[in-house]
Amino acid sequence: MSAAVDAVELAVFQSRVHSIAEEMGAALRRTAVSPNIKERRDYSCAVFDGRGRVIAMGDHMPVHLGSMPMSVQAAIDAIAFEPGDIAVLNDPYAGGTHLPDITMVLPVFGDERGAPAFYVANRAHHADVGGAFAGSMGPAREIFQEGIRIPPVLIVRRGEVCREVLGLILLNVRTPNERRGDLEAQIGSCRVGEMRVRQLVDKYRAGKLQVLIEELLDYSERLVRSELRGMPGGMFRAEDWLDNDGVTDAACRIAVEIRINPPASSMDIDFTGSCAQVAGSVNAVRAITVSACFYMLRCLLAEGAPATAGILRPLTVTTVAGSIVDARSPAPVAGGNVETSQRIVDVLLRALSQAVPSRVPAASAGTMSNLTIGGVNPRSNEPFTYYETTAGGMGARPTLDGISGVQTHMTNSLNTPVEALEYAYPFRVRRYGYREGSGGVGRYRGGDGLVREIELLAEAQVTLLADRRRFRPYGLHGGSEGAAGRAAVIDAGSDGEVELPGKCSRRAAAGSVLRIETPGGGGWGKA
Amino acid sequence: MLKIFSTPADPSAAVLDALGRIGGADEALHATEVRHGTTVGTNAMLEGKTARVAFITTAGFEDTIAIGRQTRSRLYDWFEPASRCLVPRELRFGVPERVSAEGAIQRSPTDKELEILVEKVRASGAEAAAISLLFSFANPATEKRVEAALQRLGVPVSTSHRILPEFREYERASTTVVNAALSPLMQRYLLDLEENVAQRHRGRVQVMQSSGGIIPARIAAQQPVRTILSGPAGGAIGAWQMARWASLDKIIGIDMGGTSTDVFLADAATGGPQHTRESAVAGVPISVPMLDIHTAGAGGGSIARFDAGGMLRVGPESAGAEPGPICFGRGTRPTVTDANLLLGRLDEASFLGGGVHLDRRRTEGILNEQKGSLRTAKDFAAGILRVIDTEMEKAIRVISVERGHDPREFTLVAFGGGGPLHACSLARSLRISRVLVPAMPGALSAVGILFADTARDFSRTVMLPGDAVKSCDEIFVELERSATGELAEEGVEGVVHRSMDVRYRGQGYELNVSYDTHSPTRGLEAFHRVHQQRYGFCDEERPVEIVNIRLRMISAGERSMPALRTPVAGDGRAACYAERDAFFDGDFVLSRFYRRDGLVPGDVVPGPAMITEYTSATALPPRCRAELDGLGNLVIDVAEERA
Fold first, then answer.
1. How far B376 CA sits from the closest chain A CA (Å)?
2. B4, B136, B211, B567 — which has fewest CB within 10 A?
3. The pTM is what?
4. How far is A111 from chain B (nearest CA, A)?
């Protein structure tokens, strides 16, 4: 603890700055329009210092942990901010992760002349950003097919919404009214954050804030280092695979070497053995890979540890440019954020379990089973796009069974209530329940996956982006693998069902029924 | 005022005993009305002692009661235990039926199918049944048929269209299941109590709801989920009632106990205490309207410790009653109470009437050992108070700032054992300029229950576009008819309050605004205004949607005010019993100690001072001043801390 800040001031400051991120989230959730944001809470909010270092992040979506700072950095690099400005961006190759995640960044100025003293940012997953497939999550071959790409630009200039920029975005998406509502909610949430940061600044005298920020970052670093000091040293290797990339059949390898150095209280994570970037959309930009590492470290810390930039200091992450964990333009990336991110965590945990076997669970479902459906709603004659992920089984833990039907690792989005879904879309849900027996057996059982059946009441384009069909969620220490994922469509007027590949996009007639079965978690220990 | 010990084995014994004592030996003294607040339901939930409930829903959706919203509650904890579902797998049953979003019945169960269902439920040995079918609020016909069939089993049956006729199936089902799970216990308890009161005292029993309104025991027995936070609701209503008598119309209440602090907000302009429909008890969502009481894990027993990074953390872990704080003699981990003692803010002689010995030396010794990087035990103690204040400040922000209210416009009403100790420092950090420590702090809950309105809530999901607002009239008339009928049965006449939940089309959360039958569009105008206030933007061009309509029938409670004593300017010297050091604003300063019961209306006491009483103590920092008003409340002008 530095001399200038004591343990008390630090606790007070951390609590205050964290509540800013939470309040931004509350404002966003309550004013957003699309079910994916308002019901499923697929968003994150964070506060950054003047150098773009994250100092507080709401407890929202782990996949955004390491990647939000890169968005803020990209905005700072690209824009000479003035008071009242808000930047918007989604380009994965300039601070984004995949195109549906739209990020806004608002600078908070200490005074009119200086540089921004803080930034607040939020990111929300939009149910459609244009491109070849409704819902913008289809089996693309180039990023140009995945939707509109927005480099860091101003969407609000000196307090006024830039109609041209907003218009350009809305013209390129399938559901402009919904997008407008969600973007307005993001702007409102940024302003809530700005107001709250100003109130925070008022509470401290000049200079004190900077000291507190440094101390907060040092504090997070100390937490991680104290954890690493107590771990066994050595090199731990693991690999796992994605079934395919959605456009070719080749499996995609993710490999990692984790080197833990307790005396130096540091950790090096090297993804060099992973495959080159692939033709389909399961490429991850480096921001996602860093998020997965951030997530693993954060899970090793006690509850309540703040997710700040300091956590990453004891860590080096090595990736090869142009690989599946560090993709380069124009590789498509929609699935990198949702599928590859989960597989990176699986690989990290498999390696970590060799170091600290009693602290690491077996593999969880390992896929978000993303479903996007787009078409025209016959009730309103307006276009619609629907996006939802379905949870699977959690991997068994040493001492505990895995939980069934629950979001794991990089996501924690809620389900859309059946009644909200049927109000909003021309669907009828026919079944939603546990997929009995899908968890891997073991001394502790993996959690079961879920089954969800949706009947389409109008013709629509259906896109599935899922994995863990060939390579099932692994068990640990003798526990069995979880069941593979499955999906099928029963076409209108036919009894037979057609099995769907994990990654595909097809037209489906009104009356068709889709069934998604998500993987179970792996077991832990011999049964 | 009479306080007696509870009798957990049979809670009604204590109630009847108390009634007997109030009536004395004179059996002729008859109560006409007994008002009751109870924690029987809450305790059953917290202790997991609820009935075996059969859950009946649309076939294909049996597991939804367990899946919930498919999220985990701790984002970064690989060892989070699975949450407990009130309905185990073998007690979940499906009915082959379906109602569409528009309320059209697409599939109806045959009588035969219903018969099979009834037999299955019978065989399961369920002690209660909860029925929640998809879209039952849009068309309850099927749910009513299932209900009628299950009535044959002779166990309490709860149906979702009666308990909560609103959309979002999981929250509706969860609320219905909680109702069913509490039914056998609460029916037995409340109906017995009512019978006994009727026989012995010729009175009837009324019960406090979590929403702050009173309902007859008979209704509470049918809908026990509405009484689950009966006790805390009494406290909030009591604090609000005291504030109203003191002519305050905007308050933030803070009730700090041993393990946690409850905070709430009330504003006369929006009907008093605020309500919420997003509560949870023991982790189970409950969506009937409740007072919006937010609980923070910050109490007198909250434990302080340094984490691996050297930051001071206080709570939510609590020393509880066993082992308790260090100063009680057995605890070994520093708590908020220990910090208050070391800083001279607890008076050993008057603490709980002097009945508890507070071991100061032991406390100082242990704090010294555990002070981490801080210089002295005193610094440690001061730090504990700052951190716990920050936790409470955060809780207050949730119910004020996050809901669009500026705390500076409110008076902080502090009660509970610890509230008055922390009120002034909290007020300062929130820039609140006035604090009220109400009279009778130990009986606020009873005051609240006594003076609460009789209130019944009715609602229905309508999902109408804004331009169809006028058609709400018809539905209100229909709701009103059944509501008036129910109330008339109880011999109560109510005033009708109509409101509607409105949102921009497509949003997921609604704002509640009044509905004016003469000018229905006025409510929509109010919606834009409130949206602007709360979320910083509104758009009058954007289409709006009416999600639910709500009817609240209120029959006003007794309004008699306690006797007002004319204040006479005084300095309270007669109540001053000591002068010694207490810790304020970073240092010990010589402070006067006053006995609260020695102060008379009109006495003005300047800080630094401590005003002690049986259950609590008020800390009055330098430059603040407290005045005892004509009702016996302490009204404090809070001066800002000297920079």
1. 12
2. B4
3. 0.88
4. 22
